[in-house]
Specification:
Alkaline Phosphatase, subunit A, about 725 residues, alpha+beta, six-stranded mixed beta sheet, Jelly Rolls, ten-stranded mixed beta sheet, Arylsulfatase, C-terminal domain, disordered N terminus, 14 helices
């Protein structure tokens, strides 16, 4: 039997000494889940790599169970995250790609954050979120008390979105996030906590602090491999920092730790997306240290793209060093954690796709486990929406694992051929997928092909797959909503149709338009702001924008930014359209659209919101600046505006003076230094005196209304000695 647990497991478990019930064992177990980006299976010491040392990752693997047949979703970032967070096949959750509005988990899905929070856990998400990029989809709206997420694929001195506030922080992002996880554990060590840590290393572009790079260059590595190894060492160091915090607080026997990757290894770019990926010599340099080389890599349906290292430790509960060979995958993490933590999932019409493997780790046999079918599929990356029949898409590859066999259904439609064929592999005897058995094992190929077709049809019948993102508009906690330009429902342009880019070009023909799905939380007055590249000496360009109830104009100028006249939105789901009404005197319209933002305008009926939150900062009684509300999600998505920096002496006191036009609605003001609360006041006039610590940091001042609405004001502060 190909699926099994090594036979010694039961004996190993019996040999564990009994664990006394101490102070930290009276509460539910803590959970720490590490999800590494693009890591694959080869750059880990435990997996046989002798060139790179990963003592802390190895520590997790050796201290518990390691799985040999554990699979991701779609060999890609967002699909894997969707399945980890929900325990469901990613297509069912609304995620079917990594960009283009196809990477948003449906708002009615139940996440691990939701179930742990409802069970009384403190919950935190630290790292690459990539499960929805704007209001109502970020982690703090999906069950997490704390969410800190860096700007994608920038690793040094970058910006973060933190509970709907933008923070610009100095240093390596892995170090900063590692410190915040440590702080989170220290703060919640006396209560159960769930820390979801989706580290964005080692996604391209490879970059790391200079000292790490120099270390591996001195060992004779190329720039590409030196930076990759530097990233690996940095993430391993921070994993160690977190594990040490658990151990030093006496929590090791009451903490479950999981480690996995979101897709296969990628021969990534070095430093910049403008740079090249690894050449053949650099690939050989890297893979020469791997103990095995499987077929395929990131985004591939073959084993090298879809299998992940998966380790799970819980001292005293999971035997050390056991190998689990049962067919399993990331859809199983959700039910397994609920099983291990004795948490009941809320009643839902959305069934779990995964199965709990917790009994396997306790030495038990699950009778029907070896009969399971495990499905996967590739995504539609860079295929324009106009080329996809979303009612019945032509998916490039769908796979099913069953027992020792794997079937791949290939559809070549999007490669220019209307052809469907199958490949069948015996992974026990052919783990590198070199011998296709589809023509010799015809009955098995037909049987597994039918299972694949039936599964995919069931996904379509449920009606939740292959939908575009729906943007929530009008929540006063974020009165400005950013919309990803590539997330359109429909696009019609004369010169450049079917685009999959973060900008949209080709606006030359009258009537060209783009449409987005929105969900208006509160009816009211709104304005639409766009950013664009104008055409020189082309006056008269005008756009119209409309939804269900109203239309507004946007007059284009040479500044690159324009805002519409006010228009009214009714409540509920509808479509927002932007249409080129006049291409201007030369008929050339604009070069490209770069930004789309929706602003909610206060009305007379909006008595529960704070009007015009402002902060005045004073140093020694002298005003050094006044600052208004920050539009966090929009600024994070399109790039935070350059913040002015206040220079204060290290021993200087900084006065924070909040104000609003309707002070009777103000309940509380909180001041943050980066991610740390510095001061708070719930008494008028809410003035606070701060003595900033050394360094440069982001000062966020959060206003909380009596109705609970939160808005923030932000600036940068630099402290120096006199």
């Amino acid at each position: 039997m190909f699926s099994k647990i090594l036979t010694a497991i039961s004996c190993i478990i019996i040999l564990f000494p009994s664990v006394s019930i101490g102070q930290n064992m009276t509460k539910k177990p803590n959970v720490i889940l590490f999800l590494i980006d693009d890591y694959g299976y080869g750059d880990i010491g435990f997996e046989g790599n002798k060139k790179i040392h990963t003592p802390n990752i190895d520590r997790i693997a050796r201290s518990g169970a390691h799985f040999t047949r554990f699979y991701q979703s779609s060999a890609a970032c967002a699909p894997t995250r969707a399945s980890v967070l929900t325990g469901r096949y990613h297509l069912e959750t609304g995620v079917w790609d990594v960009h283009d509005g196809r990477d948003f988990i449906h708002s009615d899905e139940i996440t691990l954050g939701n179930v742990f929070k409802d069970a009384g856990y403190a919950t935190g998400a630290f790292g690459k979120w990539h499960s929805g990029k704007t209001n109502a989809y970020f982690s703090w709206s999906r069950g997490f008390d704390v969410g800190i997420h860096p700007k994608l694929y920038t690793y040094l001195n970058t910006s973060y979105i933190y509970n709907n506030k933008v923070v610009i922080a100095e240093g390596a992002s892995e170090d900063i996030l590692g410190d915040e996880v440590v702080n989170f554990i220290e703060l919640h060590k006396d209560e159960p906590f769930f820390a979801y840590i989706p580290i964005q290393s080692i996604h391209e572009p490879y970059n790391c602090p200079e000292e790490y790079f120099i270390k591996y260059k001195k060992l004779g590595h190329s720039d590409h491999v030196a930076r990759l190894y530097g990233m690996v060492e940095l993430l391993d160091y921070n994993i160690g920092k977190i594990l040490n915090t658990v151990e030093n607080n006496g929590l090791l026997e009451n903490t479950i730790v999981l480690f996995l990757s979101d897709d296969g290894p990628s021969p990534g770019k070095d430093l910049s997306y403008a740079g090249r990926r690894m050449n053949d010599a650099e690939k050989t340099e890297r893979t020469g240290a791997w103990s095995r080389i499987l077929r395929g890599g990131k985004a591939s349906i073959y084993e090298g793209g879809s299998i992940t290292p998966f380790y799970m430790m819980w001292k005293g509960k999971i035997a050390e060093g056991i190998s689990v060979d049962n067919l399993s995958g990331i859809i199983d993490i959700f039910p397994t954690l609920l099983d291990a933590c004795k948490i009941k999932r809320p009643e839902s019409k959305l069934p779990l796709s995964g199965k709990s493997f917790w009994p396997l780790l306790q030495g038990k046999v699950i009778e029907d486990w070896d009969d399971r079918y495990y499905f996967d599929n590739t995504n539609f990356y860079l295929i324009p929406r106009g080329k996809i029949n979303v009612s019945h898409p032509r998916v490039r590859e769908i796979s099913v694992h069953h027992d020792r066999f794997k079937l791949i259904r290939h559809d070549r439609y999007h490669y220019g051929k209307d052809t469907v064929y199958y490949e069948l592999y015996d992974l026990q005897n052919d783990p590198n997928e070199t011998m296709d058995l589809s023509t010799t094992q015809v009955d098995l190929t037909r049987q597994l092909g039918k299972k694949t077709e039936d599964w995919f049809q069931s996904v379509l019948d449920h009606g939740r797959a292959y939908q575009q993102a729906v943007y929530q508009i009008g929540d006063w906690n974020e009165p400005t909503t950013a919309i990803n330009l590539d997330a359109y429902q429909e696009l019609q342009l004369a010169d450049a149709p079917d685009q999959t880019s973060f900008t949209i070009s080709g606006w030359t023909k009258k009537g060209s338009f783009v449409t987005y799905a929105i969900d208006v939380v509160e009816a009211g007055r709104y304005q639409i702001e766009i950013g664009y590249d104008p055409v020189k000496e082309n006056p008269g360009v005008r756009f119209l924008t409309y939804a269900d109830a109203d239309t507004a104009q946007i007059e284009i100028n040479a500044s690159g930014t324009a805002i519409s006249t006010p228009l009214t939105f009714t409540q509920g789901r509808q479509f927002l359209t932007l249409v080129l009404d006049n291409p201007g005197q030369t008929g050339m319209g604009i070069k490209s659209l770069r930004r789309l933002v929706v602003h909610h305008l206060p009305g007379d009926q909006d008595t529960g919101i704070l009007i015009n939150p402002m902060v005045t900062l004073q140093k020694r009684g002298k005003t050094v600046g006044s600052y208004g509300i920050s539009n966090a999600a929009a600024e994070f998505m399109f790039g935070a505006q350059h913040d002015s920096t206040i220079i204060v002496g290290e021993q200087s006191s900084l006065s924070v003076i909040p104000s609003v036009d309707n002070p009777e609605q103000l309940r509380e003001v909180i001041v943050y230094r980066n991610f740390t609360k510095m001061a708070e006041s719930d008494k008028a006039p809410f003035h606070m005196e701060l003595r900033p610590a050394p360094g440069t940091f982001t000062l966020n001042v959060e206003f909380i209304s009596k109705s609970g609405i939160r808005n923030s004001v932000r600036t940068q502060v630099k402290t120096t000695e006199f």
